[in-house]
C-alpha cells in the first residue's frame, strides 16, 4: 500500500510520454495501434512485451517523484529530432496523470499505456500519481497537462478523494494564469460520487458532470441488423462531432467514432464549446466539452473507455479470428489514438513540437 503523495512511474498510464519533438506541424505520422501487454499500475515498472523503441525519459523535477530511466514498448516507431533550424526550440511537454486506472475494460488500460510510451518520440517528462498528491503551486508548476483519472483509493469503489479550498484555488490559478491544461475523465465507477472531486476542481470553469451514469445508443450493426455492442470488444459509441466551431474543431480531426460505456454527460456553460454529443428525439447529451480559461484550457470528457486495451486492439485479441467480427473490431472502427493526440494537443496549443510517431496506424499531427 503506497502512502498518499508517493508518485509511481509505471506502465499503468505511467510512462505517459507525450512528446515535444520535431517542430514541423501538419504532417502525417504513424503511431501505435495495438501495444503489447504491459505491467499493471503501481509497481514502478514500465513498458510492454517486446519492442522496437527504447525511450530515455528525463527524471522528474519534483523531489518525491519515482521515475523509470527508460521504458520499452512494442510498435513501429522512431525518435524524431527538432530539425527546423537553429531557432527551433522544443521544450519538454510535462504531463501528470493523477488517479487510479480504470478496472472495467478488457485487459484494463495496457494499450493506453503502451501507446503513450512507445509513441513519445524525442523528449518527454511524465509522472503518474496513483495516490493523491497535494495540489500546491510547486506541484502544478512542474506540469503542462494534468489528466484526471479515477480520484479515489480504488478506481471503482473509492473512497473518493477531496481537495481543500486552497488546492482548488491553486488548481484554478495554474490554469487561468499559468497556462496549464487539464483533461478530465469520468465513468470509472457505478458510484456516482466519483465525480464530486472533479466537479469541485472544475467549478470555476462552469463545466460539470451530471450525476447520472449512462451510455449512448449502440449505433453499429452487421448486415443482418444485429447490434454489435458488447460483441467483438465494442461498447457503445459517439459519432456526432462539432466540426464547425473553430475553437474545438481539431478535437475531432481524423476521428469518426469513439467507444464509450457508462459515462457522465456534461453540463456546458454558454461560453464553453461542445465538441461531441449524442442526440435522440428527446435529449441531447454532451460528452466532450472544452473551454479556454484565461491562459489555460479545460477539456472534460464523459468516460474512461478510451484508456482500455480493447479500444485499441480488441477483446484480448480473442475476436481477431472470428469471422463475425470482420470489420467490426474496435481497432477498425475507432480512432482512439488520434482522439488522444487531439485532446492532448488541444490543451497545449503552443506545443508545436509535440508529435506522435509510429507507423502502425497513421495519426494526423497538427
Would you kindly provide a written description of the structure presented here, covering whatever features stand out?
This protein is of the alpha/beta class and 366 residues long. The protein has one domain (28-364): Rossmann fold (3-Layer(aba) Sandwich). The protein has six helices and 16 strands. It has helices at 110-118, 137-141, 165-176, 196-202, 330-333, 336-347; strands spanning 28-31, 53-56, 70-73, 94-98, 125-129, 145-148, 181-184, 208-209, 236-238, 240-241, 258-260, 266-267, 273-279, 284-293, 296-301, 361-364. An eight-stranded mixed sheet has the order 5-4-6-7-15-14-13-10. The longest helix is centred in the middle third of the chain and has 12 residues, at 165-176. The protein starts with 27 loop residues before the first strand and ends with a strand.
List the helices and strands and how they pair.
Layout: E1 28-31, E2 53-56, E3 70-73, E4 94-98, H1 110-118, E5 125-129, H2 137-141, E6 145-148, H3 165-176, E7 181-184, H4 196-202, E8 208-209, E9 236-238, E10 240-241, E11 258-260, E12 266-267, E13 273-279, E14 284-293, E15 296-301, H5 330-333, H6 336-347, E16 361-364
Parallel strand pairs: 4-5, 4-6, 6-7, 7-15
Antiparallel strand pairs: 1-16, 2-3, 8-12, 9-11, 10-13, 13-14, 14-15
Brief summary of the model shown:
With 366 residues, this protein is of the alpha/beta class.
Measured distance between first and last alpha carbons: 41 Å
* Second rung of CATH, namely the architecture: 3-Layer(aba) Sandwich
Beta-strand proportion: 15-25%
The number of distinct helices, counting runs of at least 4 residues, comes to 6
Work out the radius of gyration.
Answer: 19 Å
Write out the strand line-up for the largest beta sheet, numbering strands in chain order.
5-4-6-7-15-14-13-10
How many discrete structural domains? 1
The biggest sheet amounts to: 8 strands, mixed
Amino acid at each position: 500500500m503506497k502512502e498518499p503523495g508517493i508518485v509511481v512511474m509505471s506502465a499503468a498510464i505511467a510512462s505517459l510520454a507525450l512528446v515535444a519533438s520535431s517542430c514541423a506541424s501538419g504532417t502525417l505520422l504513424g503511431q501505435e495501434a495495438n501495444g503489447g501487454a504491459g505491467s499493471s499500475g503501481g509497481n514502478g515498472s514500465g513498458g510492454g512485451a517486446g519492442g522496437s523503441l527504447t525511450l530515455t525519459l528525463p527524471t522528474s523535477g519534483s523531489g518525491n517523484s519515482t521515475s523509470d530511466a527508460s521504458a520499452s514498448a512494442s510498435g513501429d516507431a522512431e525518435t524524431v529530432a527538432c530539425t527546423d533550424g537553429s531557432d527551433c526550440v522544443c521544450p519538454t511537454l510535462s504531463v501528470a496523470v493523477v488517479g487510479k486506472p480504470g478496472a472495467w475494460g478488457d485487459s484494463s488500460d495496457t494499450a493506453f499505456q503502451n501507446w503513450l510510451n512507445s509513441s513519445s518520440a524525442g523528449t518527454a517528462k511524465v509522472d503518474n500519481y496513483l495516490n493523491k498528491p497535494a495540489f500546491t503551486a510547486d506541484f502544478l508548476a512542474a506540469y503542462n497537462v494534468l489528466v484526471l483519472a479515477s480520484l479515489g483509493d480504488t478506481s471503482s469503489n473509492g473512497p473518493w478523494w477531496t481537495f481543500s479550498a486552497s488546492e482548488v484555488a491553486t488548481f484554478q490559478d495554474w490554469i487561468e494564469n499559468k497556462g496549464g491544461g487539464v483533461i478530465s475523465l469520468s465513468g470509472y465507477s457505478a458510484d456516482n460520487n466519483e465525480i464530486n472531486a472533479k466537479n469541485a476542481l472544475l467549478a470555476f470553469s462552469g463545466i460539470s458532470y451530471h450525476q447520472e451514469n449512462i451510455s449512448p445508443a449502440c449505433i453499429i450493426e452487421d448486415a443482418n441488423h444485429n447490434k454489435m455492442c458488447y460483441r467483438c470488444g465494442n461498447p457503445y459509441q459517439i459519432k456526432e462531432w462539432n466540426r464547425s466551431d473553430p475553437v474545438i474543431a481539431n478535437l475531432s480531426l481524423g476521428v469518426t467514432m469513439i467507444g464509450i460505456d457508462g459515462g457522465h454527460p456534461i453540463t456546458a456553460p454558454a461560453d464553453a464549446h461542445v465538441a461531441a454529443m449524442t442526440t435522440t428525439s428527446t435529449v441531447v447529451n454532451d460528452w466532450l466539452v472544452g473551454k479556454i480559461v484565461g491562459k489555460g484550457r479545460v477539456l472534460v470528457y464523459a468516460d474512461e473507455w478510451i484508456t482500455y486495451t480493447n479500444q485499441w486492439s480488441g477483446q484480448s485479441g480473442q475476436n481477431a479470428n472470428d469471422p463475425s467480427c470482420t470489420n467490426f473490431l474496435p481497432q477498425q472502427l475507432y480512432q482512439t489514438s488520434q482522439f488522444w493526440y487531439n485532446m492532448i494537443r488541444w490543451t497545449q496549443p503552443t506545443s508545436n513540437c509535440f508529435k506522435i510517431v509510429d507507423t502502425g496506424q497513421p495519426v494526423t499531427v497538427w
